[in-house]
Amino acid sequence: MDGYLRQADEKDMDLIFQWANEPAVRKNSFTTDMIAYEEHKEWYKNLLLNKNSKQYIYIDKNQVIGQVRVVTNGEQAEISYSVCIEKRCMGYAKVMLELLYKQVKQDFPQVKKLIAKVKPDNIASKKALMDMGYIEKYQVFEAELYSNNLEKYQENRVEHCVEYPGGGVEKKVLLLKNNINSLELYNWLSKSTSVYLYSEYLQLEQIKEMGPDWIISYNCKY
Predict the structure, then answer these.
(1) Rounded to an integer, what is the distance from CA 35 to the centroid of its chain?
(2) Between 92 and 218, whose confidence is greater?
(3) Mind listing the pLDDT tens digit for each residue in 77-87?
(4) Which domains does the chain have, with CATH numbers?
(5) Is the pLDDT reported for residue 100 higher than 80?
(6) 154-to-5, 86, 188 alpha-carbon distances in Å
(7) Are strands 63-73 and 53-60 parallel, antiparallel or unpaired?
(8) Burial, 70: exposed, middle or buried (Cβ in 10 Å; 0-12, 13-18, 19+)?
(9) How confident is the prediction for the chain on average, in pLDDT?
(10) Average of per-residue pLDDT across 23-40
(11) What pLDDT shows up at residue 185?
(12) Which of 67, 115, 155, 198 is the most exposed place for a label (fewest CB within 10 A)?
């Protein structure tokens, strides 16, 4: 592959619009609604005028393959990209990311860090980014106030410490629960040992008083 990035201009507006509304792109975007053309026109015009952002088109063998966008904020820049549907799974994403690295150093010399935000189920993008040296720093969790998930969590929440006698090897296990998935682990452990299940924060003195042999913690630091 001997492609290159060129800066997008007004003539690329419809191409970017077409790619942005492609079903897989919408699915992997943080805003999944289809984009109205008038809304896109206004956004694209502002994008080209913004001195802190650049829109690039990736060309290979005289074919348009994909697009990559950079929006800077001081020494950081957030990137986003997509490959046209006909050229996916061919390694173009990594080529674009490598070219972008060089392009950002040229166009935005003040930038020292690139950031990409990817949905958890967008495995292809995660792999491409990690293969190019990007490191996953954190995950974002959301809860809809009127969804069933919060109600199910409240129904399964255990507020007090209770000992459950089990068979097999007698070990006291303290399971610190602030994750609904820990209930499955509790059910499995309680078949063979004694388990303390606790959902609230415990002081170190309280833990010592219980005297557990093992402590299993979901997101609790001790």
Answers:
(1) 22
(2) 92
(3) 999 999 988 88
(4) 4-131 (3.40.630.30), 148-217 (no CATH)
(5) yes
(6) 51, 46, 21
(7) antiparallel
(8) buried
(9) 79
(10) 88
(11) 62
(12) 155
Q: pLDDT for 62-82, tens place per residue?
A: 999 999 999 999 999 999 999
Q: What is the largest CA-CA distance in the chain?
A: 72
Task: Give 126's contacts (C-beta < 8 A, 6+ positions apart).
Answer: 118, 136
Main-chain dihedrals φ then ψ at residue 77, nearest 5 degrees: -145, 130
Q: What pTM does this model have? A: 0.63
Residue 82's Cα: distance from chain center in Å?
Answer: 16
Place of tokens 């950031």: 115
For residues 25-45, give the mean pLDDT: 90
Give one DSSP letter per residue of the chain, joined into a string: ---EEEE--GGGHHHHHHHHTSHHHHHHSSS-SPPPHHHHHHHHHHHHH-TTEEEEEEEETTEEEEEEEEEEETTEEEEEEEE-GGGTTSSHHHHHHHHHHHHHHHH-TT--EEEE---TT-HHHHHHHHHTT-----------TTSHHHHHHHHH---S-EEE--SSS--EEEEE--STTHHHHHHHHTTTSEEEEE-S---HHHHHHH--SEEEESS---
Token pair belonging to 4: 């290159």
* CA separation for the pair 135, 141 (Å, rounded): 18
